[in-house]
Each structure stands twice: as structure tokens, then as C-alpha cells.
Design goal:
Length: about 400
């Protein structure tokens, strides 16, 4: 006795299909198999449907494989083409962590310019929460969230050179869809991962680390002698910002919500840490800078900190508003910038990693800083991928520090 799992895909609307009804389809008149269906299930995705069957086979024959092939061909006469099913999260409606649904999803093969990747580790980011809640709008519903992962190439599209099956690669950004066992990616969106970097580390720094890179090296170029303010300094991006800015020679002021997070931020190179739930961070920054203010604020908290951040800046200082963990900041009149001739920018990694050269440059600098020890990546939380809803809840509840990684 054995078990045969068949996964059959149909690139046809479901109403056009003849669905195999009986397990007797499995047994050819010439075989010795007796079969019975244990279960069957159907899933649909993008107007395509596929069926999963599990059969119990009682057989004394060694010709099982041949019979299975016959059956697949027979079923395939109804406009079929075999597809692979993988497990992935999908969001069908916007809302809390509970709208993340763990489902069978059709994946297919890579086309020209694409690769298929089996994910080994997936980075959790606050942007995943924004898409799940609808703060940022996904292009389609349902969608699979996730914008950061590291995995092994399992197939390459026709004619593709430069990538091979077995390569370890990582990516950050679009296309969204990394909360999945496997995914199809444009080959030019991934970078090779050096041997010295593990999949878990790669998945925890691709998005957060390249964000720290563009914020500190390109958006506002931090140099020795600068004083900077980093909100949420113990978070995924915040931890890397503190370490990197310290190494660049800046004086780093960090804000956090708890003593435990303050200890981590200090360990990460923040020279001054303010617990902004207890202390007025504007007054404290004023004290620390002897009334001069800071050169730049990296503000990912948004609504709760935005106005105070403007108040912390020195003349001609830079307000870098790159996130909104506490909510979208209120609109700012231009006059709010005029009093100190401030600069205000709302940057996104996607607009800083546009070309292949920009991507390779950012990833290269990041991996080099990990290798040299400038960045000590804190993977403080790992969850099985199937527990992504719990991971989302913990991130939103401010229970996490450093990077959070999901393991398929
Ligand atoms: N623009 C870009 O390209 C870009 C790229 C990557 C990330 N980001 C942004 O960077 C920020 C950090 O991302 P991350 O993934 O590393 O997350 P994270 O910083 O690890 O988590 C968010 C942190 O924000 C703080 N926070 C303050 N008020 C909060 C509130 N009301 N609810 C939840 N958290 C609150 C919490 O730290 P405390 O408890 O210490 O306050 C929390 O731990 C996010 O806003 C994200 O959107 C932007």
C-alpha cells in the first residue's frame, strides 16, 4: 500500500473543467491497483483553478509509476497544464494579522528574465503591516505580502545567463510576495549572497540594511562631526542606523520606548538614548546639543514624533521622514520649514535602488560592513513562516527589537 499525491492545474476557468470524480480513474484496466480517494481539494487563483488529490493505492505491482502517468495524461485532456502548488500567505481583505491566510497557491515556472527561488529565510518589515492594513495599496487582491527574502534558485527562465540553479540569492523590494515557500522573481532584482553571509542574516538586512545605507550615505550624507537623531533606535532599521552612523563618526541620539530597548541602542553605538515614552525628547535633544539642534532626524515613527522632530533640527537641518509606525503625520505647511530654512524629504528605498548598479552598490557596501563587523546584525526573533500573523502582531505591539525573520 502507498499514497499517491496528484496536483493537477488547469489554466481554465473552473466552470470549463471536467473534474475527475472517481478514484477508479487511477486504475487502468491492466493494472493491479485498487485505489480510494483520501481527500481532494480545489483552489483557485487569478481565475485559474487547480485540484489536489490524495489516493491510497493497494498494489502488488511494480508498474505504479506508469499507471500514474497514464492517469495524468487522461485527466489532462481537459485543457490542462501541470502546475506546482506551494504554501504561501495571501491577503484577501485588508485588516489585522488575522487576514493573513496560509494557502495552497499556484506558482508555475519562470519565464524569460525570471528565476524561481525556494526561500530559506524571509524578512519581516513594517511595510508588510502597511500593505496588510491598506496604508499602502497593493496592486491586486488577493496578494502575497513580503518584500525581503533569501533563498536558493531552483529554476531559471529560458535563455537566462548569469544565474544558475543552486545559487544563493537575496532580494528586497518589489515584486511583493516573499511570504511563500517559493516565488518567481525577475533575475535582475536579486543579488548573489556571499558565502560569509547566512540566509537568515541576508534575509534580515536586505531591506533594512539597504534602507540604512541610502539614508546615511545618499539621502543625507552623514560625516564625522554630525549629530543625528534616530527614532525607534532599537528597531530593525534603527539598530542598523545607530551602528552604521556611529562607525561614520557621527554623534548618535536614539529614542526608544523601554529601558530594555535603551540598553540595546546604547550597545549599538547610540551615544545618548532618550526613552520618549517618559521624557520629552525635544527638551532632551535641546539639552544634549546645548540648544543647537541636530543636523538630521531620521524619523520612521511619523505621527507621534514628526512635529517634535522638526523642533529638534538646527538651522538648515534635514528632516528625513521615512516611515509612519505610529500613523501618517499631519500635513505640514511650508511655513513650518521657513523658520529654520529646513529641508524635508520623504524618501523610499525603491527610488534609491532603481538601477542594477545602484542595487549592487548598496548590497555590496552592506555585505562588506557585515563582513568587517561594522554591522552586527541582531536577529532577535525568528518564527516559522506559518506563524507570520503572530509575528505581525508582535511587531505592531512594539514587542520586537532588531530584525524579525520568518523561516519556511
Ligand atoms: N522609506 C523606506 O524606504 C523604508 C524602508 C524600510 C523601513 N521603513 C520604515 O522604517 C520603520 C522601521 O521599520 P522596521 O521594519 O525596522 O520596524 P521596527 O522599527 O522594528 O518596528 C517599529 C518600531 O517603531 C516604534 N513605534 C513607535 N510608535 C509606534 C506605534 N504606535 N506602533 C508601532 N511601533 C511604534 C517601536 O519602537 P519603540 O517601541 O522603541 O518606540 C517599534 O518597535 C517603519 O516605519 C518602516 O515603514 C521605511
Amino acid at each position: 500500500m502507498g499514497f499517491l499525491n496528484l496536483r493537477l492545474g488547469y489554466h481554465q476557468p473552473i466552470q470549463h473543467l471536467l473534474v475527475p470524480t472517481l478514484p477508479t480513474h487511477l486504475a487502468s484496466p491492466h493494472s493491479h491497483h485498487q485505489t480510494s480517494t483520501l481527500f481532494s481539494q480545489s483552489v483557485s487563483h487569478n481565475n485559474k483553478s487547480s485540484y489536489s488529490y490524495c489516493y491510497k493505492i493497494n498494489s502488488s505491482s511494480s508498474s505504479t509509476l506508469g499507471t500514474q502517468k497514464l492517469v495524468v495524461r487522461a485527466l489532462s485532456t481537459q485543457a490542462p497544464s501541470p502546475v506546482d502548488m506551494i504554501k504561501a500567505f495571501r491577503v484577501h481583505e485588508l485588516g489585522g494579522p488575522e487576514v493573513l491566510k496560509w494557502e495552497d497557491v499556484e506558482i508555475g515556472e519562470p519565464k524569460e528574465g525570471e528565476i524561481r527561488v525556494r526561500n530559506k529565510a524571509i524578512g519581516l518589515n513594517f511595510i508588510d503591516v502597511y500593505f496588510r492594513k491598506g496604508v499602502y495599496k497593493a496592486a491586486t487582491l488577493p496578494f502575497t505580502p513580503g518584500m525581503e527574502a533569501c533563498g536558493v534558485v531552483t529554476a531559471v527562465g529560458p535563455g537566462l545567463t548569469g544565474r544558475q540553479v543552486g545559487d544563493l540569492v537575496a532580494y528586497a523590494g518589489t515584486p511583493m510576495g516573499s511570504y511563500a515557500e517559493e516565488q518567481i522573481l525577475p533575475a535582475d532584482k536579486v543579488v548573489p549572497v556571499p558565502d560569509s553571509v547566512s540566509p537568515v542574516i541576508a534575509a534580515s538586512i536586505m531591506l533594512k540594511g539597504m534602507t540604512a545605507h541610502f539614508l546615511l550615505r545618499r539621502c543625507f550624507k552623514v560625516e564625522p562631526g554630525h549629530t543625528i537623531l534616530v527614532h525607534a533606535a532599537a528597531g530593525g532599521v534603527g539598530s542598523l542606523l545607530c551602528q552604521w552612523a556611529n562607525a561614520l563618526g557621527a554623534t548618535v541620539i536614539g529614542t526608544v520606548s523601554t529601558e530594555e530597548k535603551a540598553a540595546q541602542a546604547k550597545d549599538d553605538g547610540a551615544h545618548h538614548v532618550i526613552i520618549y515614552k517618559e521624557d520629552d525628547f525635544v527638551a532632551r535633544v535641546n539639552e544634549i546639543t546645548s540648544g543647537n539642534g541636530v543636523d538630521v532626524v531620521y524619523d520612521s515613527v511619523g505621527k507621534d514624533t514628526f512635529q517634535g522632530s522638526l523642533a529638534c533640527l538646527k538651522l538648515r537641518g534635514y528632516m528625513v521622514s521615512f516611515g509612519q509606525s505610529s500613523g501618517t503625520p499631519d500635513p505640514v505647511p511650508l511655513s513650518a520649514l521657513a523658520a529654520k530654512s529646513l529641508f524635508l524629504t520623504r524618501p523610499s528605498l525603491m527610488q534609491y535602488n532603481v538601477t542594477r548598479d545602484e542595487l549592487l552598490g548598496a548590497a555590496g557596501e552592506l555585505f562588506a560592513n557585515v563582513a568587517s563587523g561594522v554591522l552586527r546584525v541582531r536577529v532577535n526573533h525568528t518564527y516559522p513562516l506559518s506563524q507570520a500573523p503572530q509575528a505581525h502582531a508582535d511587531l505592531e505591539d512594539r514587542k520586537t527589537t532588531g530584525s524579525v525573520v520568518l523561516i519556511p
